[in-house]
Design goal:
Layout lengths: L1 E4 L2 E5 L4 E3 L2 E5 L8 E10 L3 E10 L2 E9 L13 E4 L4 E3 L1
Antiparallel strand pairs: 1-2, 1-9, 3-4, 4-8, 5-6, 6-7, 7-8
Length: 93
């Protein structure tokens, strides 16, 4: 699977986890040069508190377009150290 935004591969892995229709990519598969920390946090009733990244490619920014659970609940332990994408990030095989 690949996560692509603004023509760049943000992540690529054969070991993603699908939860609720979202592909979670292992952190080692992420091209971190395209990510910057965001101050945004949200809470999922069963996964826990999510933190976000902004995606920055060729002078364009996609704010809060990636999220992860630094300390997921016991129900979502599988996605610790995984990152998911939305907001126009294309997920392809």
């Amino acid at each position: 699977m690949k996560a692509i935004w603004n023509g760049k591969v943000i992540a690529e892995s054969d070991h993603t986890i699908n939860i609720e229709g979202n592909q979670y990519f292992p952190t080692e598969s992420i091209n971190k040069e395209f990510l910057s920390d965001s101050n945004t946090v949200t809470v999922c009733h069963w996964k826990g508190t999510a933190s976000y990244y902004n995606i920055n490619v060729d002078g364009k920014s996609n704010e809060d377009a990636a999220w992860y659970y630094p300390n997921p609940s016991s129900l979502a332990y599988k996605i610790k150290d995984y990152v998911a994408f939305w907001k126009g990030v294309e997920i392809t095989k």
